[in-house]
Amino acid sequence: MIKPFKQILWATDFSEESKEALAYADFMAKAFKAKLIALHVVPDFAPALYEAWPEVEATLIGQIEASKTNAKIKLDQMCQSQGVCPAKIIIAEGSAAAVVLQTAKKEGADLIVVGRKGVSGPEPNLIGGVTTRILRGSRVPVLVTKGTTAKPGALKKILVPTDFSATEDVERDYAWMLAKKFDASLTFLYVAEIFGHDFRLTEEMFQAVLAKLKARRRREHKAIEMTDDVVKAARAHNGIIDYAESKGFELIVMSTSVRRLARLFLGSTTEKVVAHSCAPVLALPREK
Length: 288
What we know:
Blueprint: E1 7-11, H1 16-32, E2 35-42, H2 47-52, H3 57-82, E3 88-93, H4 96-107, E4 111-115, H5 129-137, E5 142-145, E6 157-161, H6 169-182, E7 185-193, H7 199-220, E8 226-233, H8 236-247, E9 251-255, H9 269-276, E10 281-284
Parallel strand pairs: 1-2, 1-4, 2-3, 4-5, 6-7, 6-9, 7-8, 9-10
Antiparallel strand pairs: 5-10
Helix pairs in contact: 4-5, 8-9
């Protein structure tokens, strides 16, 4: 059984997207009474640079320290303008994605919140390199916001794409936890890629899933609304993205991979949904 979020790590590069990510991080922290930790990573110079030009080492180190001081000022200003006061602020140096993952482990974070692209490029519908590496390397859930400058309101509609794999309980557990916390409805969506499907079998699978959740609903005395749907699309990610947008879902919950090897090539349905969806995505690592 999963546990509620208690330590939330918000990573920022001071982009507009990171302001939206802060709003979601604060929203989750307040809902779960969690500790909010803010992190900014200052790029370090390659060791080879120090070796090649030892005479400028002091200057380079001075630039890093100045960047750290400036980052602390920016963080304070951003938090004041957003009306959010993280319990802890960390300014570190190194490779951004690696430091985010290391900090999450060190601080015991059970949720990382980041923007989709930040300052890593101009394309509005792609995932930034740092966020991609965080998604591929994280062993805790990663909430990726969309850069729309929207602020989270009442989280009432959660979409859970399903492929009926045996390891899918993690999505259902997190979705259930969030539905309980925010009094939200859950919709389980199966996308039938248009190459022929046995819809009778799909219906049987849905009934098995919903039966387990209805038993949980009775056991926990929670009147959570649950529905299921099947759509056809050329590709699974297209069906998920279009469905979420047309139905006005406020969050998509799905895993980053099916098998451990697939993490090396996250590529796949989840990454495409993160890249193109209009709704934030809570990406969950299935294996520990």
